[in-house]
Amino acid sequence: MFFSKRAFFSTIGLAVVVSVSGWFVVKTAQRQISTASVPDDFVISTANEITNIKTNKSGQIAYIAKAQKAKRFENEDAWFYKVDVLFYNKDRKQEPWHITSDYGKVTNNDNNVHLYQKVIMQRQAAGKNAPAVKITTDEVFYDDKKDQLNTDRLVTITQPGTDNITTGEGLIGHPKTGNYKLLKNVRSYYAGQNE
After folding, report:
1. What is the DSSP string of 56-68?
2. Model confidence at 29, in pLDDT bands (50, 70, 90)?
3. What's the CA gap between 31 and 165, in Å, rounded?
4. Which residue has the higher pLDDT, 195 or 191?
5. CA-closest candidate to residue 173, choices 143, 149, 147
6. Strands, DSSP E only, in 108-147?
7. How far is CA 65 from CA 68, 95, 100, 150, in A?
8. How far is CA 167 from CA 98, 102, 186, in A?
9. Is the Cα torsion angle 146, 152, 50, 109 positive or negative in sign?
10. Angle formed at CA 177 by CA 175 and CA 179, multiple of 5 degrees
11. Is 105:125 a contact under the CB 8 Å cutoff?
12. What is the pLDDT of residues 44-65, one digit of tens each?
């Protein structure tokens, strides 16, 4: 087979471009490593099936956080997949809040957490005055220093085993004390209870 001069020079030109591009990428990476200028989103470690237990000042468990997969980045932020957190109430007679989500991000410098996609917050019943509760939404933000959880998304609150349902836009709450408040457009439906 014969190639035209044009095809030959195009092939040579393409080979030169690929070689120069590869050289540039390698040199840039070497320069970043030698000057310690690694990008913030550079993954420095990964893990599977992790568990983090945090205790309060008196040594009691404040929360247990688990994830199926995790990545820590150069800027020390972390990303999690299949998050599962158990927040223990300050009043140990109350059941802990169990929060799950598909994804989570932690900002390491202030320890704030962003949970998103299929966020479910549940508490088991603890007697007649503390019924089981299930809260669902698309995302929540949690400030560890303030023990404050909030979202501006649609929130649905149900009482498992009943037809009771409450919806609203936005929520603010404190998992360690168990107090939650819907912010606006609140609508409720309560079914009669048989005794």
Report:
1. -TTS-EEEEEEEE
2. low
3. 58
4. 191
5. 149
6. 112-123, 133-143
7. 11, 16, 10, 18
8. 20, 22, 6
9. negative
10. 75
11. no
12. 888 899 888 888 788 888 888 8
Residue 100 to residue 148: CA distance in whole angstroms: 16
Kindly give the pairing relationship between strand 61-73 and strand 78-87. antiparallel
Tokens at 182, concatenated: 């819907």
Domain ranges of the chain: 1-37, 43-189
* Unique residue bearing structure tokens 């471009």: 17
Tokens 């550079």 identify what position?
Answer: 42
First to last CA, the chain: 91
Q: Each residue of 144-184: pLDDT tens digit? A: 788 899 999 999 999 888 888 999 999 998 887 778 899 99
8 Å CB contact between 70 and 80: yes
Judge: domain 43-189, CATH 2.60.450.10: yes
State the amino acid at position 125 in one-letter form.
A
pLDDT at 189 over 50: yes
Q: How far apart are CA 154 and CA 138, in angstroms?
A: 8
Measure the CA–CA gap between 81 and 97, rounded to whole angstroms. 19
Segment holding 30, helix H or strand E: helix 5-34
The residue among 20 and 116 whose pLDDT is bigger is 116
Q: What are the structure tokens assigned to 10, written together? A: 């195009």
